[in-house]
Amino acid sequence: YKMKVRVIDVSHEYLHVLGNPKYGYGKNFNPCIDCKIFLFKRALEIMKEEGAEFLITGEVIGQRPMSQRRDAMNIISKQLGARERLLRPLCAKIMPPTLAEEEGWVDREKLYGFSGRSRKPQMALAQELGIADYPSPAGGCALTDPIQAKRIERYFEDTKEDERNDLDVRLLLKGRPFCFPGGSYLTMGRNEGENKVVYAMRQEGDEVVKAIGPAGPTGLFRPAPGVDERALAAAVIVRYCPKAIPDQEVGFGPDDETVTTTICANRPADELLESWRR
User: Fold this and answer.
1) Burial code of 191-204, b = ≥16 C-beta within 10 A, e = fewer?
2) Cα–Cα distance measured from residue 46 to residue 155, given in angstroms and rounded to the nearest whole number
3) CB 3.0 to 4.6 Å from 222: which of 53, 77, 129, 185, for a disulfide?
4) Whole-prediction pTM
5) 271 CB contacts (<8 Å, ≥6 apart)?
6) 118-to-44, 84, 124, 173, 232 alpha-carbon distances in Å
7) HEC sequence for 242-256
């Protein structure tokens, strides 16, 4: 669409917001109001760096139950400290004029007055503008998904603020994750596609783990400092390897072609497995 785009990773900074939301959580582990305030403040900083005059968002009044109520949107604008600089073109006509409209930088008459949960007006507008390859409007943030939200909530319960790492959080949101008593993590794909995604997320110090011989999942093992929990990770891999034999050999290495450590393991008891599951 001939737009210049900058992608800025704010994951590490966001962990503090996620763990300490002033306005609380939604139905799951989603701090939507605090999230919007945080992102808009960062965007405001970039706006000033770029020499721009105002911000644009795609919000619509009433579309989301927590952060897009009119009162919540007013809180967000107020906390931003520059509410007149925040333009919401899709619902601008049912909101007070912003600086961009008052100064004539944009024509208010060409903006929209959408409201409510339906996406049909936006979809019709997209069709009118020739935009077809947009994501499905269903679903939303991972923190609103009950299963994924619970994983992240347990991670925050189990770690101190200075121990939290956005790379660990990313890993918990992929595949089938486990956390062992010493703090080590194992994530494995549930199919070939997820195996590739998990493998691509490896960082320095991580180990790729899989059964030697029979086909099975590829796991990514992230060891905690000062403990060796490879035997637990090997047992989990064996549990999900249908053709594993007793004392199945499991290999660990820096990539999927190199094995530096092997461990023989058997399937763990179901209750033990459940205690590790995230």
Assistant:
1) eeebbeebbebbee
2) 31
3) 185
4) 0.82
5) none
6) 29, 27, 11, 28, 48
7) CCCCCCEEEEEECEC
User: Residue 147: which H helix or E strand, with range?
Assistant: helix 146-158
Q: Which of 216, 140, 215, 203 is nearest to 167 (CA)?
A: 203
261-272 in b/e form (b: 16+ CB < 10 A) is: eebebebbeeee
Provide the 3-class DSSP secondary structure of residue 96.
coil
Please tell me the distance from the alpha carbon of residue 131 to that of residue 215, in angstroms, as a whole number.
43
Write out the DSSP string of 151-174: HHHHHHHHS-GGG--HHHHHHHTS
Residue with tokens 């691509």: 200
Q: Please work out, in degrees rounded to the nearest 5, the angle formed at the alpha carbon of residue 186 by the alpha carbons of 214 and 276.
A: 105
Please list, in sequence order, all residues whose beta carbon lies within 8 angstroms of the beta carbon of residue 169, skipping any fewer than 6 positions away. Answer: 11, 15, 152, 155
Q: What is the predicted pLDDT for the residue at 139?
A: 63
pLDDT in tens for each of the 278 residues of the chain?
788 898 999 999 999 999 999 999 999 999 999 999 999 999 999 999 999 999 999 999 998 888 888 899 888 888 888 878 999 999 999 999 999 999 999 999 999 999 998 999 999 999 999 988 888 876 678 899 999 999 999 999 988 898 898 988 888 888 899 999 999 999 998 888 888 888 888 999 999 999 999 988 889 999 999 999 999 999 999 999 999 999 999 999 999 889 999 999 999 999 999 999 98
> Which residue is listed with tokens 């918990």?
172
CA end-to-end span of the chain: 40
